[in-house]
Amino acid sequence: MLFIGKLILVAFPFIIAETSGSFYNQLRFASNASWNANGITVANSTLIGLHPFDIFIDKNNTIYVPKQDSKQIILLFKGNLTSTRNVSANLSNSLTIFVKTSDDIYVDTYYSIGGISRITSNSAIPISRMNLCYQCSDIFISQNDLLYCSFTENHQVLASSLITSLDPLLIVAGTGSVGSTSTTLRNPLGIFVDDTNDDLYVADCRNNRIQLFKSKRLTATTVAGSGSINVTIDLNYPSGIALDSSSYLFIVDTGNNRIIAEGLNGFRCIVGCTNSSGSASNQLNNPWSLSFDSYGNLFISDQANNRIQKFNFVSSCYDGIKNQDETDIDCGGSNCSKCPLTNTCLLNSDCYINECDTTSYTCQATSGIARGGQGGSIFSDLDVVGLYGRTFPISIILRCGSYIDAIQVTYETSNQTQGSVITQAPRRGGTNTGPHQFDLLPGERIVKVNGRSGTYVNGLQFTTSTGNVSAYCGGSGGTAFTEQYSGYVLSYISGRCGSWLNQIQFHWIPA
């Protein structure tokens, strides 16, 4: 146990409640994704002051920047220089900001009231949430409401629960002593938490490396830079980091004035690749942090140039991102031809139904109504089985009483070149009751679903293309429904679940 002033730091995990949802844009990029080499200045010193450090973009594409010299937070709505707002918060030399919602903003207030404070867009009164004797260089809030602080001067990363103020501060990385071992840090800066597994990534600035601390581990693996086991890339004072939805790294390589991206083929430079600092549109000078908008465009706080630079995402096949000048989700750039439903997107192709799944880059199936309530956690069986071809259920296991306690589907996915793959998706729900299994014959497909739903999914029954009907499983509560589409068969399910099946949505493809 380590005492700092009146604070008690405990180097052991504690239990916190889990919540769902994310606060920032986290997209999936192709391995060869690229950005325009020339940036656009979306904010200069007149608006954001001198030496901008941090930048945060929420899911509404509002940009938040702490203004060093005016004790304010600058908001740019939709990244628009002509649509701005100032939030006066009595800040002084604030380094970092993190936004859960527009009324739930966390910012460094070390030089005003100390530590990290919470403010709202309608209030100038900061509420202290983490008291420290040194400044936090970066903050991050995980989906389970754990507030992380990059405690640079003490060579540590600390965390504290936002759910209860009674929990002590938690040491999640570093020993408090400077070093370059697997357990020590040297002036850490940027931090990012992978919400899929609670792994912590740290930009270990003066060790010129990125450290990965697996959940609840105080020993790290070097995943980029100096000392990495695998050949990666040389870094020079990395300051900011982010992950895409595939857990690939994006690194602000400050000393080299560039941005590095990771992919299937390793690391590569994507912005500022001129090997020199400068103020030209294709150069950076002491960049500090980065953030993405929902279109995949990259924004960088270009500190020594006193500006925020925007580097537009370049549309390419398999990007799965809606372009700003298109009405659909793009699978291949502007003026594309269409690719068939459930087929992998081809070069210069969009989906017939104007939707493209961003996890498999395949034209999505027609989706029915989401039936049930909003409890539990979101799931999609598409994330498990993928869609490299045509996917159909071949077996369904239901657990039911008055409600559907759980559903578990086994799928067959096939195409002409790779043959068939059988995949059983995870059980969606609990084990409060026994299983009831419905197996389909070879070539048999589900063409209709009957059921009942309300706050939960109350009951389900399936009808196949050969007229076979599964036994009704569930209770009599909720409202009855029937779902079928002429010429379509069931492909996969998504929904929400916890101890029960809270919600279900059926996705259909042409027979």
What's the level 1 CATH class of the largest domain?
Mainly Beta
Shape: elongated
Number of strands: 46
Walk across the major sheet and give the strand order. 1-2-16-15-14-13
Instruction: Figure out the total of helices.
Output: 2
Mean pLDDT: 81
Measured by DSSP, the beta-strand proportion falls in over 45%
Number of domains: 2
Distance between the termini: 63 Å
Low-confidence segments, given as residue ranges, are 1-21, 316-336, 346-362
Query: Any idea of the CATH topology of the largest domain?
Result: Neuraminidase
The CATH architecture of the largest domain can be given as 6 Propeller
How much helicity do the residues have?
Answer: under 10%
Instruction: Describe the sheet with the most strands.
Output: 6 strands, mixed
CA gyration radius, whole angstroms = 25 Å
Within CATH, the superfamily of the largest domain carries the name: TolB, C-terminal domain
Structural class: mainly beta
NHL repeats: 176-216, 276-314
Domain Jacalin-type lectin: 365-510
Keywords: Lectin, Repeat, Signal
Signal peptide: 1-17
List keywords for this structure.
511 residues, mainly beta, Neuraminidase, Vitelline Membrane Outer Layer Protein I, subunit A, six-stranded mixed sheet, 2 helices, carbohydrate binding
Protein model, in words:
2% of the residues lie in helices and 45% in strands. With 511 residues, it is mainly beta. A six-stranded mixed sheet has the order 1-2-16-15-14-13, with no helix packed on it. Strands 33, 34, 35, 45 and 46 form a five-stranded antiparallel sheet that branches. It starts with a strand and ends with a strand. Residues 1-21, 316-336 and 346-362 have low confidence and may be disordered.
